[in-house]
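ingest -> validate -> predict -> emit
validate: passed (alphabet ok, no gaps, 314 aa)
predict: started
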Amino acid sequence: MRTVTFPLLAVLGLCGVNTARAADLDYDYLRGADYDPVPASVVDWSGVYLGGHGGFTSGGLSQRDAMQSTLANYFSNRDIESEFSVSKYLSLPGTRTHGASFGAFAGYNVQFDDIVLGIEADYTHTDQNSWSTNRIGRIMTTSGGVSEDVNLSGTSNTRIEDYGTIRGRAGYAFGNLLPYVTAGAAIGRVTINDTVAVQNYGYSATTYAANQALTTGQPAAVYHHGYASFNPNFPLNNSTPAGQGAQTVPLGPTTLTANARTKTIGGVALGFGLEYAITPNILVRGEYQYVRFQDFNGHKAELNTVRGGAAVKF
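emit:
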């Protein structure tokens, strides 16, 4: 009995030692760390922000009808206007402008999950300065038989120095990245200077032709207007032969001021952009903005701006 008990106790003792040693072993390197990792920071786009921007602006300016109303008033109650619409003859070509632009912006965002909605206002200084000139001359005969000579020459200057917008914004947040679209109203300051030189003279071609056909009797008086001197026998300009009376010479042009003013104009603003949060409070962006102003005094204007900016969010 003693011989069986001793070996059994020895085996149980060895198992206890091995179990104790196994309990002392550290297998944490197989199970992984016993602490939770720190979650990546999530940008909260909500809040007020203030920043500045700079970029490049190109403008499309049109003065096509800048002289029309002034010429319509000048030729009102005239047969050449009612019959030939001479006030629409002079059309100035459009021009393209370009130059640097810079300014500031401020806004407020509210975030709903990944959707970001906000409102933003900005101011942009730029110098879009355009000149356009054109001239046209026409000879026509009215229903009353008067030969009319009309010469028009116009010059237009349009200058947009600055503008501002107030817009709504809508974006979708991808962590630190926020693509967005924007739309709203624009208001700008424009200076215009439009002048047109008008020369109009004419004579009764019917009466002149009748006088040339006379074989007896006295010639009738030839109606004429717009001449410094007029010879009814030689009505063409500077065609009077020496010794045949006064030279036929028309009066010089009359210069009219069509527009000379600085005014405020309204319009719409559209755009899209991409904003990136370097830190929760430092934002950078790239943006395209299109502004279309309402027509003003026969002028049209649109601006295209590509710019970058940076802001601080509070």
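The helical segments are 2-24, 28-31, 68-74, 79-84, 205-213.
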